Amino acid sequence: MPEPDVIKSVRSLFPGSKDKKGESIIASISTHIDNLQNKSPPFQMAVGGGAGLCTGYLFTRGSKATATILGVSLVFSRLVGHLLPGPHHLPTLHFKDKTVLITGASSGLGASLAFELYKSGAKLILTARRVENLKELCESLKRRHTSNPYEPEYRHLDITNISDVESLRSLAIDGSTIHVLINNSGISMRGSVVDTPVSIHKQLMETNYFGHVAVTRALLSAIPDEGCIIATSSVQGKLPVPYRSAYTASKHAFQAFFDTLRCESRPQLHILVVSAGYINTGFGSRALDTEGRPIGEEDENQRRVKYIVFKWVFLVI
Known about the structure:
Layout: H1 5-12, H2 20-37, H3 41-59, H4 64-83, E1 99-102, H5 108-119, E2 123-128, H6 131-144, E3 153-156, E4 180-183, H7 198-219, E5 228-234, H8 245-262, E6 270-276, H9 300-304, H10 312-316
Parallel strand pairs: 1-2, 1-4, 2-3, 4-5, 5-6
């Protein structure tokens, strides 16, 4: 488990690993924080308010008025956070001994996520059109992470031609439950609005929107409330970008679908939409031109990114 930020801050005050007193203080604070997190919200508010009063009193040279304002503000913010609905009420999700299904797993971000999740002890079901790539990926996973007891599975899946997706449930640990669904398949394009034909718009909507709608609807009943749907979107799902009209439109639709799903009948289900920026995965070179052909080269901004960033998922959940 990662250390809370407050523990990291305290640890920075005792950088020496041989400082037994520092380690003792850190261990004591960590124990108190763990105990506090298991208490009821009113108790947490009282402790937080008291801490605010003490802190304010100490750092304002005994100003009772300022200390009182700080303490009340802490209590009020904690109360508001407790009353308002939102993902902060959801439990922390861990991937060990969970079944995770990834679409678009044959390369790039999907493959990188596969390595990170398999290292975390997850059972993986990897899907894509390029089956040979998936087979090689599964062999690499087993060689690199021998401590994971689960055999990684792979299956062909064309996101634009969904058929019998429900059968993937049989590959799960218990033969039915998909704890985490990662909707990662996608394709981009380059071209002006004037030059891009409607056929390109339709192709991107089939891949980036309708395919994910079909997969999610087919597997939704297999995902428990303590599970998660992760949807790999883009900043272009929120902002317009010139010469990306079809891609931007498809990602706006993608964003809206999962935002709507989050508002419906299962408020306890994690639904995380990741609005990624430039990532050096080769995705840009597979973007289609106005004739429907891959352009074969990365954007300049993507070439500048030296590392594939995939840990954002684990930082957010």
